[in-house]
Amino acid sequence: MPLDDIQPTQSQSQSQAMQPAAPPKTAKRRQRIRLFTILGAVIAVVGLIYLVFWLLVGSRHVGTDNAYVQASVARVSALVEGPIVAVPVYETQVVKKGQVLAVIDPADYRLAVDRARADVDQAERKVRQYFANDTALGASATARDAEIVQAQAELRRAEVDYTRRRNLAGAGAVSGEELTSAETARNAAVAALAQARANAAAARGQQAAARTLVAGADVASNPEVAAARTRLAQAELDLTRTVIRAPVDGVVTKSLIEVGQRMETGAPVMSIVPVQRAYVEANFKEVQLRKVRPGQPVELTSDLYGDGVKFHGRVVGFSGGTGSAFAVIPAQNATGNWIKVVQRLPIRIALDPKELAAHPLRVGLSMKAVVDVGG
What we know:
3 domains; six-stranded antiparallel beta barrel; alpha+beta; single chain; Helix Hairpins; rod-shaped; four-stranded antiparallel sheet; 22% strand
């Protein structure tokens, strides 16, 4: 190869080698700028998405996972005392209102009913005797009045006889003995009239006393009979209470009795949970409740069924105070070491009975509640 052809190539290589290379810091800076630009764009997109979500969804809903299923549990107690002879139900059993839960030995209460019925019969007989006495004393008072009339007639006859003899005695036609006898007869008639009047007054007093026992009422409405019937009704009520029945539909929970166990009046027997009337108690932060109102719709999910099952309810009302306000040891906010803590207020949420029937819940289960406050 000619030398002239080789030299330009070498000089060209030397000139390229002598040109300054691009600084490595400039390349890194460009790469960093590109990364920050991408990151900023991603943040802007995420922010825009969040803003759209907040405007369309987030601002219209408030939610909490601090929610639990509750129900108005019926706590069944014994209303009479005695030994348990039968417990036909068991824990977790579904029962209907009026179904027999337990039976207390009714023998003593049957005897009490029989005794009360005998007392009613005795009271009725006694009151009938009161009416009979009133009738008899009325007749006696009438007879005493007749005795007064008879005594007055005897007195008039004796006075006439005495007056006649006293007039004849002045002429010597009547002896002194006859006059004395006539005077004695008159005095005896006066005493007899006084006695008849006293007897009539006593008879009328006895009649009035007897009439107060029967006045204004018949046998059935007499106070003594009414009191006896009340005791009979109480005895019959106690007899019916030996059979303990379910007050509501629900599930048997916390059964505390066994056959042979003696129950005292007021002792707890078991609890009936009306799961078909369960509701949710959701504890929202106070800062979430600005727009929450009764009647707003609520969407709920249960940890038991997962997100695939949605429950729908409505806000019923707000509790009268926060949980800390009714705590056993309430917060002493008046002390100097007080620290503000965001409080939670319980809200009652009613559930759809049809959804509860399709997917039963139990008291204490965790729920997630989202309230639609858009309206």
